[in-house]
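Bug #77: duplicate submission created two jobs. Keeping one. Sequence:
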Amino acid sequence: MQDTNPLYTTYLTVTQKAADINYASAVLGWDQETYMPPKGAEARGRQLATLASMAHQLLTGTYYGALLHSLSEQEYLFDTEKSNVAHSLDDYEKNSKLSPEFVEEMSMQTSECFNAWIAARKQNDFSVFAPSLAKMIALKRKQAELYGYTCHPYDALLDDYEKGITVATLDPLFQGIKEQLPPILDKIKAAKQVSNGCFHQHFPKEKQWNFGIDVLKRMGYDFEAGRQDYSEHPFTTSFAATDVRITTRVDENNFASMLWSCIHEGGHALYEQGLPENQYGLPLGSPVSLGIHESQSRFWENCIGRGRAFWEFFLSATTSLFPRTA
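Kept job's structure:
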C-alpha cells in the first residue's frame, strides 16, 4: 500500500490546525446564540474576530501557499489527497486576496449584526437592525471587489457557497420557476382548503420539547454526537462529524413552529453527522455546498415531515400527548 506523502502530512497538520481554530470559534458562536449573557456580546465579538484572523493567517501564509503548489505537482498522491489539495489551493488563492484586518472587521461586523438583529426582533422594529445591515452590505461589496469578478459582483460571493455558480446561471433558472409557480399557486388556492387549526392550540413547552426529541431520535439523529438547545432562530452548527448541534424555538400556541424546525435542523444535522470522520478539517470532510445542505433539510421537513406516512406513524403519539388536538 502506498505511503502518505510527507508533504501531504505537513499539509494535514496546517490545515487541521486552522480547522481547530475555526471550530473553536464555532463553539463560541453556538454559545453566543444559546447561553451567552447579553453583556458578553462585545467581548465575544472581539474573541471571534481574533480567532477568525488567526485561522486566516494560517491558511494564507506564504509557507502554506508554497506547500499547496508543491503538492499540486506531486504525482504520487491518492485521489482523495489530490482532491483535498486542489480545493485547498483554490481556497488559498481566493482567501489570500483578503487581509487579516478585513477578515477581523468582517467577523466583528457579523457579531454586531447578530446582536442588532436580536434587539430588532424583540422590539419588532427593523430600524434597529438597519444600520448594522447597511455596514455589512458595504463590507460584502468590498469583499466582492477584493475577490474580483468578470460579470456580476455577486458571482464572487456566490462561489463561497456554490462553487462555479454565477448570476448568469441562476437567473434563467429562477425565471423558469417564477413562470411555473403562479399556476400552481392558483390551483392550490382554488382547491378546498384543509384547516390547520389543530396546530394553533395550547401546547405546553416541555411536552413539545419532548416530542421534538423523540422525532429527532426516530429520524436517526445521534444524540451521542450532538444535542438540541433553544435559540432565537433555529440553526445547525458542526464542530466535527461527532459533534453536530441543533437548536429550536417553541411557541406554545403554534405546535408547527417547533416541529418543523426540529425536522428541518435535524435534516441538516444528519448530513453533517454523515460526513467522513477521517477527513476532519479537510475539504472532503466538509459539506459540498449550501444547496446540497438545504436539500437535505427541506427533504426531511417537507417531503417526510409533511407527508401522510409521517403523520400516520406519529398521530397516535401526538393525540395522546396533546389530547385537545384529537
